[in-house]
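User: Fold both of these, please.

Assistant: Here is the first one.
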Amino acid sequence: MAKKKKTLVLERCDLELEANGRDHHTADLCRERLVVRRGQPFWLTLHFEGRNYEASVDSLTFCAVTGPDPSEEAGTKALFRLSDAVEEGAWAAVAVDQQDSTLSLHLTTPANAPIGHYRLSLEASTGYQGSSFMLGQFTLLFNSWCPADAVYLDSDEERREYVLTQQGFIYQGSAKFIKNIPWNFGQFEDGILDICLTLLDINPKFLKNAGRDCSRRSSPVYVGRVVSAMVNCNDDQGVLLGRWDNNYADGISPMFWIGSVDILRRWKKDGCQRVKYGQCWVFAAVACTVLRCLGIPTRVVTNYNSAHDQNSNLLIEYFRNEFGEIQSDKSEMIWNFHCWVESWMTRPDLQPGYEGWQALDPTPQEKSEGTYCCGPVPVRAIKEGDLSTKYDAPFVFAEVNADVVDWIRQDDGSLHKSINHSLVVGLKISTKSVGRDEREDITHNYKYPEGSPEEREAFKRANHLNKVVDKEETGVAMRIRVGEGMNRGCDFDVFAHITNSTPEEHAGRLLLCARTVSYNGILGPECGTKDLLNLSLEPYSEKSIPLRILYEKYCDCLTESNLIKVRGLLIEPAANSYLLAERDIYLENPEIKIRILGEPKQNRKLVAELSLQNPLTVALSGCAFTVEGAGLIEEQKTVDIPDPVEAGEEVKVRVDLLPLYAGRHKLVVNFDSDRLKAVKGYRNVIVGPS
């Protein structure tokens, strides 16, 4: 009689963190846990007691579950046996090697499995006897390296930039003076993955029906929409509270942040209570961190002269008094710039051709299906003027295409349309270049060339008939020009440059006005004016009229956006004509100089020397440098500087760094004080092996 086989007993399971982290581009996340990407095999080694697995007598069945209510129908529970081959699109376990009492396996997940936290167990049976073993836990992410995944990107350089890179730039300033702001996304820093999963687990859709929500996490369209809603806190326990009124005393100014990590950690530490405060680039940057962390290729984009159109008529109307000053306080307006994110994915829910970059906007502006979120909407649909496309195409189309009409209210109350060619909506749409610290202009992804037949067709498709009408020309043109040396703390000149290209002489009144302005278009006090009652323009002539702007006038009312709006209004009574020109001017902050002392090697201490010269004519107090850098610093560091820092004085501080691993890192620095706020600097640090 044959001897009965002893039951198979599992001693331990090795999740092969190092090998899997390397193969799945998750090494930074795999130091103490298993994090893998879907649609790609990962290693597992089973160590048995007494005897090894024998295919002829033993049966191994694996069980992987995610969420609080897993089920096979929902795709949140999988049962699969050890087999000889992988069935495409299914969970599978294949033996790769067998020695003594160890069995090495490849486990494969479907490329459309829900992402999230999984529990993995094993049922080992010999004849009629069986035992269950808990093998461990793992986190499954989207996989842009897998051709079958909805987020697949075929360029390795782009995958590196849009999934793996932890630092980058966000573009601010104005269309004519684009300013790059360094940002530490830090998606692989300690605790961030858990925070991103927590964010998914407290979203209202999960709280309403956890099983359905976890099942739908197979779709990047669904996950992107959830993240768009959860980065703001308007409907839920989201991350950030927005504020735009320059009163940030009970929180942190949006301009102060230099990375997403500190924001996300504060949110988690305070029991998922909203963090004060964010504005558009902060919302977009945090969304970028979360989406990259979950494996969705994502980038932050900036649109200059961005329209906020509430009634979807693709028209922003400004009503002004006879001096050109805006009268009504309204929420429909043009923002200097506005940031959102684009994520790369297929759109099986839409017609072919709409895969690729999708716009998602986490800044709470308008409700979408009852929730403050926006997108994802295919960028291609915006370009084509296809406004019926999910989600929120009309709002995003207006951001880059709305028309602006200025009405001058005359003494008798009648309205007169002014001509303003200086304000074009949707300019210089910008994102960081792949693999380089340069700006890439992606306006062509959103808009056809101005005046082209394709542009006209897109406007007709969108029923944007204002744009199909040819612009009125008068023969007299005006634009605002700037001089040199527009640095914070300095006096400088701006110019109204007027051209008369007609054979007639023109006479009129020129009103020039400069006011501080926030990036979202809210005007502050005046800081310079000029009124020329009798301005004559000879036939075929040009004139430049200067306006001096003094530091003493703007110093106390300049917002942290560092922007001044200059407006010129040329009134010709004889022709009953109003010509308007505007320009937003960005004032440069002083430079933060960063020196790295010592040779950057993995796990070897380094010192960064930071310095800045006070450019103002007054002393600074409350000065501090704040430093972040994924892979260089584990926690954000702040160094306070003794008061006062006199006018023209240079301050220097030293900060200890500890490069954790080899590679290219970016040190991101913020300087803050009472009168000079949110000055940014960065330095690339190449760390060699130890």
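And the second sequence with its predicted structure:
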Amino acid sequence: VYLGKKFLSVLRSIQGDDNLQSMIVGTVMRKVKSRTWKKQRYFRLQEDCMTIWYKSKKAGNTHSTFSVSDVEVVREGHQSEVLLSIADEFPPDRCFTLVFRGRRGNLDLVAESAEEAQSWIKGMRKLIENLENMGQKEKLDQWICDWFNKADKNKDGRMNFKEVQDLLKMMNVDMNEHHALRLFTMADKSRSGTLEDDEFVQFYKMLTQREDVLKVFQEYSSDGQKLSVQDLEEFLRHEQLESEGSQQRALELIDQYEPSETAKMLHAMSIDGFLMYLVSPDGSIFNPRHQSVYQDMTQPLSHYFISSSHNTYLLEDQLRGQSSVEGYIRALKRGCRCVEVDCWDGANGEPIVYHGHTFTSKILFKDVITAVGKYAFKVSQYPVILSIENHCSVEQQRTIAHHLSHILGDKLLRTTLDGHIADGLPSPEELKGKILLKGKKIGGLEASLNGAAEESIAGEVSDEDEVADIDEDHPHGDSMRRKGKRLSKELSDCVVYCKSVRFHSFKQSRLHSKFYEISSFTESKARKLIREAGADFVHGLRTDSSNFNPQDMWNVGCQIVALNFQKAGVEMDLNDGLFSHNGRCGYVLKPEFMRSCQRKFEPDNPQDREGYRPVNLSIQAISGQQLPKVNIKEDSIVDPLVRVEIHGVPADQAKQETRYIDNNGFNPIWYETLQFTVHVPQLALVRFVVEDYDKTSKNDFVGQYTLPLSCIQQGYRHIHLLSKDGTSISPSSLFVRVRITDVA
């Protein structure tokens, strides 16, 4: 790894850009939080072209910074609720929004002129694009450059030994002074007592030398210096279990990851190339072939797990949190395919969305639908389900139907696909680009297609049907129950394949339920049904909501397990893990034994299933790389341990952890093997967690990564860790060796 002239030339070309030059000089802009909170801040791009610095215009105030890599996208004009609220005060050509990754709030800004706004919009977009286009090697160069800038406190372009010692603490390295001085002296070729460009790179290279990777490299290298095509082919076949076309594959990997042109000409891979391969997507634990849609998408809708959000409109807690259209945008951009809309009567005949009978703020229904229409198919073309919780009067229900039809247009599914009643649900493939409404319906699908309710203005729905959801979510909601008995025909007609009905029993469902009917359960009722009739639960179309462990519901085939996307934690880690494959399209095909009515599956007794084939999962935790500091105390260094958790059917629920390593978050070494038996691998999720050990209190979370067992690549693999928010904390990673074998 070297701080190459290549990266510096990229830096110079960026700095030659007029927009970026303007950003480096700095600009005064208004930071806007609400219609009444608009304060001037001085913003500028730092010389590293990676950090935005800003502070109040008042002297003496502390400054703040954020990284360009934290920004996901730049929205131009009045494209946030906050900026829309001040649209009468500031024109759209002066306004823009920085949207951050994860759950961090947006930054809404108003520039002094349209020209200044354009400089920041175009400049930020160029920086984001440049970051996205960086190769693995350039990212490492960038990482080194960042550390150099952090360590070079007096900004003289060189580092003395004191600065190096401070750097080691920042990097989570606990190294005694003698060893640090030895590395410093070895790198200081000019004997100047400081490290400059290439000397710092040499120091960094000695610091980051991967003995664990070198050990594997030398095991397969014929001469200890390089891997020939045959050496690499043997490694791929024997260790990575990639037997198909392994010679061609070896040549491709050399061509893609080997930095030395000389080695490439010799069809060989150096240790640097080998490391580049291992930290790349090809060397990741997640199978890159599963990053695109690879499953059969032509099965009925009920044959899929569907990524689903509960209380989608909330950004915070359910009692006093802020309701926001941004909640829908964030959920849809994460691949969510079922969002909840809690509708109530609003002022001026306009329905509103909020968490009823709480202090959460309110937003207009039409604004929610506008956002859904705009963002529904940005990341996935497969259908979106709008789950309407209807508490409105008949008059405002008609307004809801009007907004759905006029705002969504052809995207809203208004009738069956071919105009006829089929004998089952259509597939995600057939419903591409369509938005489906889930809610109450007057009568059945047959009646609405035959025009039986043509003259009706509003219809009665039975007490039982109408209060199904209300009973569950609002046990004391008598007034709502009385208010909500009548349903407008216009809104009823918008419901096609997802008619909400009250659940009575599995027996009644088998005998009388229609394919387009869907039942919802609260967590407590779902758990009771799982205990009483787990096997019966597996067939049918159902939903569930709130943040509990979703795995128990998936185990019994629940399609729509709705989670609070705004709440980070193990539950959302599992949800992100399950839907991380199949192109992150929001639909994951259930295992075959859950789709066939002829096959019986009981989660509590997996060994009774036809085709039962348990596996042994062996994970050797080898090392960690550049784990982030979690304690803000300057002298604190992480004491990391690795925990591996299996989430699946009850017999598969298990966790094991390594010992902790004292004071080393930079390159801890474990070489510990954790073993698991997995009875239903098709449903198992594997969660890797790194924690900072604390003997006096609860361990601190460092990072995690969750994926389906079916997506794991075997062999020597890197696991690229994620934050609590599910965002990348590159270059933090784990290095592991994985083996999956049939139980003898």
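Residues 1-10, 462-484 have pLDDT under 50 and may be disordered.
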